[in-house]
User: What shape does this take?
Amino acid sequence: MILIDGKKISEEKRLEIKQKVEKIKLETGKVPGLATILVGEDPASKVYIGSKIKACRDAGIRSFHHSLAADSSKEDIAALIKKLNADPEIDGILLQLPLPDNSFADECVNNIDPAKDVDGLHPYNAGLLNLSKNRNDITEKNILVSCTPSGIIHLLQKSNVQMEGKTAVVIGRSNLVGKPLSMLLLANNATVIMAHSKTKNLKELCKSADIVIAAIGKPKFINKDFIKDGACAIDVGINRTAEGLCGDIDFESVKDMDITITPVPGGVGPMTITMLLDNTLKAFVGRKAAQCAAKPGRLEV
Ligand code: NAP
Assistant: This one.
């Protein structure tokens, strides 16, 4: 078994981001800024936001936190987002999800300026990803892609897992993980099967795949019967059970196989915040480039 060390790969990427931020500061006197919005007091969301703010600080990115009451209306949230959209110090806006009333989460996300949509959840960015022809297209158009999927692609690249021509089964079709991940794998020339709760013969599909990615949210759902020798298994799941944290893959069941795998914790998880920092940097660069295009001769970055 080859273990993909997400923590190490994430630390290397964060160092790279920090160095880029330092260079930008030196050249322009400016640094990227991320606004975080937390609605309500959910303890897990507070921990996530705290980690994002700390990661920004460590990378030299400015963060601006906004707390709203749990009973905030969609109009209250929209008013704050409108203010942040217009604020030139803010390059990225992160609305922590789920909201206490998650029924209007999509509407709130849609209020975010797509150029500041560092979670990559705005229909404009999701649409651009779907329309992208290949991975160069995604880079050249500076598309802001959902953080967990782009972190997974980074892990695969850094671990020399070939995607081109390989069959990948993505289990889960959420807008946050499964769908954007499938598009990224496709852009990297994998042959992609998107599986979900209504998929028939999931075991057989997975057993024939070179890459199996589990983004289900069901503890230890995938065992050795789903994975072939020589395959790469990526575990996106974060499940809190009585025995502690575990993924969607039953690690004990597969650990003696000849496979490449991400552990939980320490696999995909550390990459998510790292790619948020990367997206904030991308948003900064993209916004500065747009400003320069609007004012020729005043190149700032
Ligand atoms: P989600 O929105 O609940 O989606 C779960 C997906 O799994 C759905 O598409 C669902 O299919 C599918 N599914 C459920 N039961 C299934 C079954 N028996 N067979 C096949 N597919 C099944 O979850 P998510 O937001 O994508 O997150 C998935 C997991 O990743 C969760 O554990 C979450 O905590 C974790 N996560 C981790 C990170 C990280 O940073 N590591 C980031 C985000 C999420 P239907 O569409 O048919 O219902």
Observations:
- The chain has eleven helices and eleven strands.
- The chain has a mean pLDDT of 96.
- Residues 148, 171-174, 176-178, 195-199, 202, 215-218, 236-239, 268-269, 272 surround NAP (CB under 6 Å).
- The longest helix spans residues 269-294.
